[in-house]
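Schema walk-through. Below, the input block comes first and the output block second. Nothing else is stored per chain. Lengths vary across the set, and this one has 209 residues.
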Amino acid sequence: MLGSVELSTATHAVDLGPRKQQAVLAALLVDAGRPVPIEKIIDRVWGDAAPTTARGAVHSYITRLRRALAEANAADGDDLSVEYQSAGYVLHAPQDQVDLHRFRRLLDEARATRGDDPGRAELLWQALGLWRGQPLTGLTGAWAEAVRREASRRRLGAVLRPRAAGQPRGEARPGNGQWRPGRGTGLHWHGKVDLRWATTVAGGSPGVT
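--- output ---
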């Protein structure tokens, strides 16, 4: 979600269908593990412009998404699923397999550490390394924009925090490496990171609005 909405296995990227279908998946992923009423899904995907066929479209998209999740499960041995409950649809997925939730968790863990703890900067760099571009790339509407703003605000705060841990003002480099996705949503360290100061992030990064 911290980029385009994607579902990747160890061997391939799973086809998630058209943008509206991706938006339905995003609407469930934000509340992974919790029921999302169909009215809320419709509002997140279409806003005030929901067609009269929106409810049927959601059911159809979820049927297709279940097939996509089954494909991912077959490739990686995961147990991803969408379950219907009386309170709404629930997407069952470990929160650390959803980059947005992993990002939030890492920031919360960093915030809970002391300012001089060397592990704090490492947690922040891991969180920043999850970003692949503008959150929910290609999705439109008020809800998608609100998700982007909230994630971008927290990202900007993460960029600012390494200074308190002794990082230089103009440029911060966590060693000579870069967090990149490995199997599933796992991360491995490669290459070199060059994250610029907050003015660059705020003015030039596609992830900050």
